[in-house]
């Protein structure tokens, strides 16, 4: 393990206030998003959409790294240029999703465990040769009646730790993503308690597996009441709860936290991230940035709709949403920005 190389990659990913673009939707997830937007669910449409993203002018101003999917990393633009070459030329660091998805956990109704460790060492070696410098593995923890169980949390954090060890073995920075889902009617306090438990178990497992904490990126959820709960807390309350939970659970040795949006709208995700950085900048021992997918891309899909004529306008929206995320990372975002026109 080259610890210095891992640190340098993380530094480059978040330089100048930049964050990460998660464009790593699996085929199933991407097709679902396309269906909702009325876009044909075909290989060519997925390729066209990814080309739209990576060829967006000046995207590198806001995005330090892009998380790709296996299908994406092997695709080319219509002109025959590998997508990875387009990103590298733009100065955007290559990342890759390596888990195989969350599957039902045997014996534990309504709980899931993420799979994908089999053959991972060889896949990472291949990705490394392609220019990949960081990776991502997502665990999903649901809150509901009698869940999550400790067994489910431990199984997922164990897998995350084994994945992280394999990444660091080949000098690839692991993003560890223990997502406590927003789905449900749980309170903010319940989300806080579960998130704290998940993170503490995660870092104990990482310690057991001899992970270099200075060579990882944490991608957590924010502490938010469930989407079905009629009581939604203020922006400042969410920011406060999230920061307090992280301070209680995440070692200062971790260099960077890149929040997932978790299904929040683009504006709400940006507002929460802004409040975290603006209100608590003197208390944060880590870089606190973003690794957004839908919070940047959803408006892009709604504009594009699979039509070549809409590409330019969709790219303008993508560029603008990425800029808003950077502003939030710097504590300089405000709702007035949403009214601007590119």
Short description:
By secondary structure, this protein is of the alpha/beta class.
Describe this structure in words.
This protein has one domain (3-339): TIM Barrel (Alpha-Beta Barrel), CATH 3.20.20. The chain is 46% helix and 14% strand. It has helices at 3-13, 27-37, 43-54, 70-73, 83-89, 120-130, 150-169, 188-208, 235-249, 266-279, 294-304, 311-329, and strands at 19-22, 63-68, 93-97, 102-104, 112-114, 134-141, 173-180, 217-218, 256-259, 287-292. An 8-stranded parallel β-barrel has the order 1-2-3-6-7-8-9-10, surrounded by 7 helices. The chain has a two-stranded antiparallel ribbon with strand order 4-5. The radius of gyration is 19 Å and the shape is globular.
Chart the SSEs and their pairings.
Layout: H1 3-13, E1 19-22, H2 27-37, H3 43-54, E2 63-68, H4 70-73, H5 83-89, E3 93-97, E4 102-104, E5 112-114, H6 120-130, E6 134-141, H7 150-169, E7 173-180, H8 188-208, E8 217-218, H9 235-249, E9 256-259, H10 266-279, E10 287-292, H11 294-304, H12 311-329
Parallel strand pairs: 1-2, 1-10, 2-3, 3-6, 6-7, 7-8, 8-9, 9-10
Antiparallel strand pairs: 4-5
Helix pairs in contact: 7-8, 8-9, 9-10, 10-11, 10-12, 11-12
Radius of gyration (CA) equals: 19 Å
What is the H level of CATH, i.e. the homologous superfamily? Aldolase class I
> Largest sheet, described in full?
8 strands, parallel, barrel
Q: Please tell me the CATH architecture by its name.
A: Alpha-Beta Barrel
The CATH topology is: TIM Barrel
Helix content: 40-55%
- By secondary-structure content and strand pairing, the structural class works out as alpha/beta
Number of helices: 12
Q: Tell me how many strands there are.
A: 10
Distance between the termini: 44 Å
User: How are helices and strands ordered from N to C?
Assistant: HEHHEHHEEEHEHEHEHEHEHH
